[in-house]
Design brief:
The protein is α/β, with parallel strands linked by helices and 452 residues long. It has helices at 2-10, 23-30, 34-47, 64-67, 81-88, 114-125, 128-134, 144-158, 173-184, 199-206, 250-263, 317-326, 336-348, 350-376, 401-410, 439-450, and strands at residues 50-52, 58-60, 100-101, 167-170, 190-195, 211-218, 221-222, 233-236, 266-270, 294-299, 311-314, 381-383, 390-394, 413-414, 416-417, 429-433. The chain has an 8-stranded mixed sheet, sandwiched between helices. A 4-stranded antiparallel sheet has the order 12-13-16-15, with helices on one face. Helix 2 (23-30) crosses helix 3, helix 6 packs across helix 13 (336-348) and helix 9 (173-184) packs parallel to helix 10.
């Protein structure tokens, strides 16, 4: 009763100054008893929605808080400096509906190992009761069996040097970046990132108030000679540079490790595409070269499915001890059931079988895209990567990114521009994601792009 009348006031159906009918008549209209109505009106009067004017009856009045209207913009909020910096660091997606969508970040549902993952969840769900009795939910690093399974996998498949005591489970790479940025950065400190780079990394580091220095990338990856000597953290994608797809060679890796040791800095190695290689075998992770200076970040959101939210970081024990003590202030270990299911699919070999199938599909779809671009758009310089879910394409001279993206949109095709990923600018280029598209959709999209 009271809720109905309150909603009518706040929704504008009963404007300021409206005179309500007498109690008996109003109760009849609303289908309630007179006593129920009187109680509701008394409560609304106490809340400031009604005003009794003696013989003049009951009048609607809008409380001051309601009259002021809702907050409609971020500038109306008393935001902290951290929130303001965080809001300024993102890249907005234009959205829209397209006949063929080549934009990056698309899920690949047909590659999701549904049967294996569902079976693992079912097996582990039955064990949660026993784990609760044994008090095994309290470790801020995550379940030990999952950290053991991850250690074994990373050592065997990625050439890492990891023990379970060096692993912390996360909700994904972004949450790992946030935790590390809060621990190591503050106003007055310096972080370095590749340029161009993954915008979420740059935004997470910049939100702390630290200066974020972009370091140029060329055909060999990040250029070590351009690194700031005073940086505390360096964010790096050496296995498959995002977004260009180039691989950082052994000589530059050694230079970067030496730089980190000289400056007491840490390298944040984002190994985001390693499991999705489809040409040859990727280089081992840098963490295996320098476990004391490289913090390895990884996630299964692309190789399994985004909904799993299963990620990890591998760090030297002193760093892990700090993270374990500070994590409870902002977070808890990610979902235990997902973590246990991840250990299950790793230990059972189901993940390896899934990857073998997924890599074949990815290799074929990339081949289809490269062939279609070569035939239909020979002036577009394709930089095909050995890993990942997209290709980096330099545009012909005289064709600007915004012009290419707009022209594609008019033909019903969506592309991802590269300019928002760079702080310093660079050659006009676009990204074309291919993993989520069947071959015929890829060919159709390129035909639309090539049509005049």
């Amino acid at each position: 009763m009271a809720r109905t009348l309150r909603g009518a006031v706040t929704g504008g159906l009963l404007p300021e100054g409206t005179r309500l009918p007498g109690h008996r008549r109003l109760a009849g209209a609303l289908g309630v008893s007179r006593n129920t109505l009187v109680d509701a009106l008394a409560g609304l009067e106490a809340e400031g929605y009604l005003r009794v004017q003696g013989r003049s009856g009951t009048v609607v009045c809008v409380p001051a808080a309601e009259a002021a209207g809702p907050l409609t913009a971020a500038q109306d909020l008393p935001l902290s400096a951290w929130a303001s910096r965080a809001l300024s660091g993102g890249v907005d997606d234009a959205g829209g509906e397209y006949a063929v969508d080549f934009r990056v970040g698309q899920p690949v549902p047909e590659l999701y190992p549904e049967a294996a993952w569902t079976a693992a969840l079912a097996r582990q769900a039955g064990r949660l009761g026993r784990r609760t009795e044994e008090g095994k939910f309290s470790d801020p690093l995550g379940p030990l069996e999952t950290r053991r399974a991850l250690s074994a996998y990373l050592n065997a498949a990625r050439g890492a040097r990891v023990t379970p005591e060096m692993v912390m489970l996360t909700g994904g790479t972004q949450s790992a970046l946030d935790a590390l940025a809060r621990v190591f950065l503050e106003p007055g400190r310096v972080a370095a990132v590749e340029d161009p780079t993954y915008p979420g990394a740059r935004a997470a580091l910049a939100a702390t108030g630290a200066a974020v220095v972009p370091v140029a990338v060329d055909a060999g990856g990040l250029q070590p000679t351009h690194l700031p000597p005073q940086a505390t953290l360096l964010y790096l994608t050496p296995g498959c540079q995002y977004p260009t797809g180039v691989t950082l060679g052994a000589a530059r890796r050694a230079e970067l490790v030496a730089w980190a040791r000289r400056g007491n800095a840490f390298i944040l190695e984002d190994d985001y595409a390693a499991d999705l290689h489809h040409t040859g075998r990727p280089l081992p992770v840098m963490q295996g070269l320098a476990p004391d200076r490289v913090i390895l970040l990884g996630s299964f959101s692309k190789s399994l499915a985004p909904a799993t939210r299963s990620g990890f970081l591998v760090a030297p024990p002193p760093v892990l001890r700090v993270l374990a003590r500070t994590r409870p202030l902002t977070d808890r270990a990610p979902g235990t059931l997902d973590a246990l299911a991840l250990a299950d699919v790793l230990d059972s070999g189901a993940y390896g079988r899934h990857l073998r199938r997924a890599r074949q599909v990815l290799a074929h779809r990339q081949e289809v895209l490269l062939a279609a671009l070569s035939e239909g758009l020979p002036g577009w310089a394709v930089q095909g990567a050995a890993s990942g879910l997209h290709v980096y394409v330099r545009l012909p001279a005289g064709l600007e990114e915004a012009q290419a993206v707009a022209a594609a949109a008019r033909r019903g095709v969506a592309l991802s521009p590269v300019a928002p990923l760079s702080a310093t600018g660079g050659p006009a280029a676009v990204l074309l994601a291919f993993a989520h598209l069947p071959p015929e959709a890829i060919r159709h999209g390129v035909r639309r792009l090539a049509s005049s």
